[in-house]
Design a protein that fits this description.
The chain has helices spanning 18-27, 35-42, 48-57, 70-78, 81-109, 141-152, 156-165, 169-173, 186-204; strands spanning 7-12, 31-34, 115-118, 133-138, 178-181. It has 205 residues and is an alpha/beta fold. It has a five-stranded parallel β-sheet with strand order 2-3-1-4-5, sandwiched between helices. α2 (35-42) packs across α5 (81-109). The radius of gyration is 18 Å and the shape is globular.
């Protein structure tokens, strides 16, 4: 579509290498929106999400400077499924709105061939309406375990517990327009990214 800057929603499970693929896309010229950074912004004191979080969870989630104590909040909600649902009901729609603003701003600026939203919970948070294409990064469980042992010093049991708590790869793949397999070397994944990028540029030019 002439003049249309496509938006890629890049997602995948823990340890699959989403950030590696995002950097490769940035190197190819894409503008990147990091959902984690957007989340940090909406947690700032006196923002609407901050007020709702304090109202829902109390002052115990605050640091002395009134910022959200994210580890304390995480510990609270991940031990309580209902609290996690409350957190997501507060945060996810506000992140959606902020990312929609960032996409619109970037499209007005122009000058990039594509926009990438890197978001681990793209599908679970119902953010797919923001994007034109869903790219899913996958890797075998053995590779993920080895990566997270090296990067985060997690045991295989800890990794498997985190994987079990996430959306399954099979469910993510139901939404995928592109699948990037990140099991091999950097050159291997770079070749996959380049191939998918070239196809995108042909489709959306």
């Amino acid at each position: 579509m002439a003049g249309h800057i496509p938006v890629i929603g890049l997602t995948g499970g823990i340890g699959t290498g989403k950030s590696t693929v995002t950097q490769m896309l940035a190197d190819l010229g894409a503008a990147v929106i990091d959902a984690d950074k957007v989340g940090h912004q909406i947690y700032l004191p006196e923002m609407p999400a901050w007020r709702e979080l304090v109202a829902s969870f109390g002052d115990g989630i605050l640091n002395p400077d009134r910022t959200i104590n994210r580890p304390a909040l995480a510990k609270l909600v991940f031990a309580d499924p209902e609290a996690l649902r409350t957190l997501n009901r507060i945060v996810h729609p506000k992140m959606f709105d902020r990312m929609a603003e960032l996409i619109a701003d970037r499209r007005r600026q122009g000058g990039v061939p594509a926009i990438v939203i890197e978001a681990a919970v793209l599908i679970e948070a119902n953010w797919t309406p923001l994007v034109d294409y869903v790219w899913v990064v996958v890797a075998s469980e053995g590779v993920v375990i080895a990566r997270l042992a090296k990067q985060r010093h997690l045991s295989p049991e800890q990794v498997r517990a985190r994987l079990a708590a996430q959306l399954s790869t099979e469910e993510r793949l139901k939404h995928a327009h592109v699948v990037i397999r990140n099991d091999g070397s950097l050159d291997d994944v770079r070749a996959e990214v380049q191939q998918a990028w070239d196809q995108l540029c042909r489709t959306d030019r």
